[in-house]
Specification:
alpha+beta, Immunoglobulin-like, 1 helix, 3-stranded antiparallel β-sheet, 176 residues, 4-stranded antiparallel β-sheet, 2 domains
């Protein structure tokens, strides 16, 4: 009797497990629309914003995933943002950063007098740490303050920004 009860329990668990697996379904991206617009779609722990199948999507990134040409191009991991620091070195601005796992290169972005800048075109590509700003006026003009961020890059694209760094041309006086 005990064996029959255990066998019946095992069969019931197997059937319930099979039902849960079939209820979960599979991911099917065999259909698509080619149109403009966008939106968000989600299911379970996955979500996607944009339009699947849009042929001119190009390269989009978010977190650790990339979307290329409207279709998942495989798993692509973007590098983490570098941890950067700034210093004055021989009358020049010097940036340094720790190496990021999976990074193939680094880019430096700079803006003048704009602490809330959104990086556009890189100021320097193929940069290595430590990096010296080649602009001789980057230090010495109290009317111009430069702000920098560093991004790591690999075949998937660029990381997010490092913390923003600023080169200020005045002495900070305590209590003023």
């Amino acid at each position: 009797m005990k064996r029959i009860l255990m066998a019946a329990t095992a069969v019931a668990l197997l059937l319930v497990s099979a039902w849960f697996v079939s209820a979960a379904g599979t991911y099917d991206l065999s259909w698509f629309t080619i149109d403009g617009g966008g939106g968000s779609s989600g299911g379970g722990s996955y979500s996607l914003s944009g339009t699947i199948g849009q042929p001119d999507v190009g390269n989009m990134q978010g977190g650790s995933f990339g979307l290329e040409g409207g279709f998942w191009g495989g798993v692509c991991t973007f590098p983490a943002a570098p941890d950067a620091a700034i210093a004055a070195a021989g009358g020049q601005v010097q940036l340094s950063w720790t190496a990021v796992a999976g990074a193939a290169g680094y880019s430096v972005y700079r803006a003048a007098n704009d602490p809330a800048f959104a990086p556009g075109a890189p100021y320097a590509t193929a940069a290595t740490s430590p990096w010296l700003d080649p602009d001789p006026s980057a230090i010495g003009d109290p009317a111009t303050n430069y702000y920098y961020v560093v991004r790591a890059a690999n075949a998937c694209g660029e990381s997010g920004d490092s913390q923003q760094l600023g080169a200020f041309d005045f002495a900070i006086q305590p209590g003023t």
